[in-house]
Amino acid sequence: MSTIKNEYLNYNVGTDGIAIISIDQVNNPTNLFSYEFIAAYFEAAQAALDNADVKGVIVTSAQRMFMAGADLRMLVKPVDDVAAFFKGMMQNHQSFRAIETSGKPFVAAINGTALGGGFELCLTCHHRIAINSTKIKLGFPESKVGLLPGGGGTVKAPYLMGMQNALTYLLQGKEVRPPRALKDGLINDLAENQEELIAKAKAWIAANPNPVQPWDDKKYRIPGGSFWTPKSVQTLMGAVGNVSKLSHGNYPAQRYILGVVHDGSQLPFDRALEVEARYFTKLASGKVSQNMIRTGFIGMQAAKKGKARPKNEPKYEVKKLGILGAGMMGAGIAYVSAKAGMEVVLKDVTLENAEKGKAYSTKLLDKAIARGRSTAEKKETLLSRITPTDDPSAMQGCDLVIEAVFEDPKLKDRVTKETEKVLADDKIYASNTSTIPITLLAKSSERPESFIGIHFFSPVDKMPLVEIIVGEKSSDKAIAAAVDYTVAIGKVPIVVNDSRGFFTSRCFGTFVNEGMFLLEEGVPAAMIETIARKKGMPVGPLAVHDEVTLTLSKYVIESNPNRDEKEETRRSYKILMELINKGRTAKKDGAGFYDYPAGEKKKLWPGLAEMYKSDPTTLDEETIAKRIMHRQAIESFRCLDDGVLNSVVDGDIGSVLGWGFPIYTGGALSYIDFVGIKNFVADCDRFKAQYGNRWEVPSSLRALAEAGKSIHDFALAGVV
Fold first, then answer.
1. 455 flagged as catalytic
2. Which of 464, 399, 457 is CA-nearest to residue 432?
3. Among 35, 354, 464, 563, which one has the highest count of C-beta atoms within 10 angstroms of its own C-beta?
4. Pick from 461, 402, 462, 464: which is nearest to 433 by CA?
5. What is the mean pLDDT of residues 529-550?
6. Torsions phi, psi of 602, nearest 5?
């Protein structure tokens, strides 16, 4: 057989006796490592092995990407038959090993990004050449979605790079450009273009008619010494300690990677592949990888592409953006928008303030240049797109205006009316408010259908989430414009419906509030913070409260006309005022729940122990952990039940990207399934009896639990 053509690849044998397998998955947006592709690949590879006239095989891609990685849709659902799954993995290993040990040279001609399973396919080839392009990435990102490289990569990486470097790649999910991959031993050569790539591949085949993989070569020496040199042992032991410290046992992929490297290094290569397959099967059949794939990959990829926009609206392009307010938020929005190629008008009450806002971009660009991530030319180009001003008429000609002034409804009312006088009737006006209802703010507008919320998170240049809030009269055009703008600047949008605090601020508030309540009840501050971090929160509730400032929380409560209705709000306000009256206001002021001595690490303020006496009856770690985590989850469900959220996935993405809810759970809503929906409801019932009505279980959640259903079975119209 000299030609094979199907929906996954093309196989052709040239007159020079060299076969080319060109991966071209015409029915996928990009090449993916899937069960169907593997079958097609083995068919083509076997045709080459069976043909005595074929001198060697070049594996390349007909698409821009070589292969983006595994088709994670295969793994988002639980593995029904674990034994069959493992058996299938071993059959794939055996087929790839037949290629590796065939004596016929296979060369990976990497003409685009090759990650995960795609790069592991390259490792089954005897030689790897990549085009020297900054657009190409190579590596093993599997740990980022709760997996390990299961196509031989976990076993092979130490052979190619040595123990220390391999663990860095595997544990961190590291991706690199071709020159770095060459230096680290992942590839063997570089080419400057496609023509040279194929020419070099053919030349290597001609020069190496009987290749042997490094792991099959008894004379091969592992970089840095064998697995059991003192240095390698020390590296492995250090990695075990670091993984335990950083993951708190919440992310099994890292533990299993260490297990494969440790166990596999003591076994013959083919037995090591069996160890890898067993660990991969455990991950693929577990909750964590499914959660991380569903939320962290499939959900976020869809959101990044603008899935939330109304389908019938034409694309809304923002060429010129106006920003009202050049403080921290406005300055950050200006930077990310100018970076995306937009012309930006940055307005403040004085030109001096507006210039200070632009200087924020200068500071970020100078840092990027110092780190080799930008150039002086790129800096000047970006800065030339930002025009500081104090003139309201400068908003004329803008496609979108984002108001980012202080959280004062009266101030927002004034700038809205001022700006609408010069903004074209068919353009969109947005507010970056974090808590004030959009419907309320839209009352200042003469065209509320063009008024929408676009809530950024600080610092804007680093935080990926944007929460788009739909007011009572916001039109589909306004929603589409907000989503299109967010996608254009490279952020991840979720669209939510209006309410005070929306989704993220409302649920984040429960995290910091529960931390304060635990403190008031007699749980030592250090214990609260430590348990929160152990459960996977980036920082404890008291530390993050200092970051956002206690004075902001005070203002948010005071701006709520219904603040006296809930006991929870009255109680949190009381605690806030106790601290604020003692001058404990924020990290930026040097004093909050923590002290911030100049040039030193922050320390919990000793006065907390005097204000809130420790109570031994409150020190049950499991209860503290559940209160911290469950409280965020039940409020997230209320947002879903109230119609603030449009889907479970939106809530999961928003919680993970918005305030750092741990991804291993899948997000604040999937967390309910993670702990068990019946267990969750029972815990909340117990907490209501002990701690109050904030733990009231919505009837729809109770119905899901009683029906034995998943949180993902919830529909906005009721229980499915």
1. yes
2. 457
3. 354
4. 402
5. 96
6. -65, 150
Helices then strands, counting H and E runs in the chain, come out as 29, 22
Encode pLDDT of 335-370 as tens digits.
Answer: 999 999 999 999 999 999 999 999 999 999 999 999
| pLDDT at position 533 over 90 | yes
Give dist(CA 323, CA 430) in Å, integer.
Answer: 10
Which structural domains are found in the chain, ordered by start?
3-285 (3.90.226.10), 320-500 (3.40.50.720), 504-628 (1.10.1040.50)
Question: For the segment 48-82, what is each residue's pLDDT rounded down to a tens digit?
Answer: 999 999 999 999 999 999 999 999 888 887 888 99
DSSP string for residues in 77-100: SPPS-HHHHHHHHHHHHHHHHHHH
Question: What is the residue-wise DSSP string for 31-50?
Answer: --B-HHHHHHHHHHHHHHHH
Total residue length of the chain:
720
Q: CB within 8 A of 663, min separation 6: which ones? A: 291, 292, 295, 296, 536, 656
Say if residues 415 and 478 touch (Cβ distance below 8 Å): no
Spot the catalytic one: 93, 126, 127, 455.
Answer: 455
Cα separation, 218 vs 212, in Å, equals 10
Q: Which of 73-82, 237-246, 519-528, 664-673 has the lowest mean pLDDT?
A: 237-246
What is the SS3 string spanning 393-446?
A: HHHCCCCEEEECCCCCHHHHHHHHHHHHCCCCCCCEEEECCCCCCHHHHHHHCC
DSSP 292: I
pTM above 0.70, yes or no: yes
DSSP state of 615: -
